[in-house]
């Protein structure tokens, strides 16, 4: 196969791949816990998977907590796994008002200067000193999809959603 034909074929295949739909999911309020914080809240109880998420290796756990703020609380906030190195709580702006906290709009993991919150499980309570954010919208995708779509970590993209 000559070089021009190969380039043309690869270009056509990539163009077709760029047109295929990519599943999107919207996540509600949730919490990520460190192993240490998990053990304090759920002592002796292994984390158990309830449902796999669209992001490979990620899952919603059976375990939930109650978030308690100065003005209110949110019950049954789902733990997402696997466990992380640092605990973090992701809520909506409305949730922040309900709880009475000034959670900043941030990318996941950008926790410097964020407020804390009290976490309550069926077994224990934990005062998280920081880590509450309103998650900035973002898309998780595989490295292959990013390469095909010509996007890099942190790029801003536009999304078109077809529907009724």
Description:
With about 160 residues, this protein is of the alpha/beta class. The chain folds into two domains: about 1-25 and about 140-164, no CATH class; about 30-135, no CATH class. The protein has helices spanning about 5-20, 35-40, 95-100, 145-150; strands at about 30, 50, 60-70, 75-80, 90, 105, 115-120, 125-130, 130-135. Strands 1, 2, 3, 4, 5, 6, 7, 8 and 9 form a nine-stranded mixed β-sheet that branches. A hairpin with a 6-residue loop joins β2 (about 50) and β3 (about 60-70). The termini are far apart. The relative contact order is 0.17. The mean pLDDT is about 90. Pfam families: PTAC (PF06130). Belongs to the PduL family. This is Phosphate propanoyltransferase. Pathway: Polyol metabolism; 1,2-propanediol degradation. Its cofactor is Zn(2+).
Proportion of β residues?
A: 25-35%
DSSP helical segment count: 4
Span between termini: 45 Å
Q: Structural class given helices, strands, pairing?
A: alpha/beta
Number of domains: 2
Q: What is the 3D shape?
A: elongated
- Please give the share of residues in helix: 10-25%
**Mean pLDDT, as a whole number?**
89
**Biggest β-sheet: count, sense, barrel?**
9 strands, mixed
Total beta strands: 9
Ranges where pLDDT stays below 50 over 5 or more residues in a row are: none
Write down the secondary-structure element order.
HEHEEEEHEEEEH
Pfam families: PTAC
EC number: 2.3.1.222
Protein name: Phosphate propanoyltransferase
Cofactor: Zn(2+)
């Amino acid at each position: 196969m000559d070089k021009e034909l190969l380039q043309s074929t690869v270009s056509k295949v990539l163009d077709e791949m760029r047109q295929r739909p990519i599943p999107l999911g919207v996540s509600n309020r949730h919490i990520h816990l460190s192993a240490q914080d998990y053990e304090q809240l759920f002592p002796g109880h292994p984390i158990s998977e309830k449902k796999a998420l669209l992001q490979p290796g990620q899952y919603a756990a059976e375990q939930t907590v109650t978030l308690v703020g100065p003005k209110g609380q949110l019950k049954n906030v789902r733990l997402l796994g696997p466990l992380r190195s640092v605990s973090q709580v992701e809520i909506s702006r409305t949730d922040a008002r309900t709880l009475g906290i000034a959670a900043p709009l941030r990318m996941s993991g950008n926790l410097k200067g964020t407020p804390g919150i009290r976490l309550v499980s069926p077994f224990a309570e934990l005062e998280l000193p920081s880590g509450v954010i309103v998650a900035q919208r973002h898309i998780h995708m595989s490295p292959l999809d990013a390469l095909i779509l010509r996007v890099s970590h942190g790029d801003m993209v536009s999304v078109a959603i077809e529907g009724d």
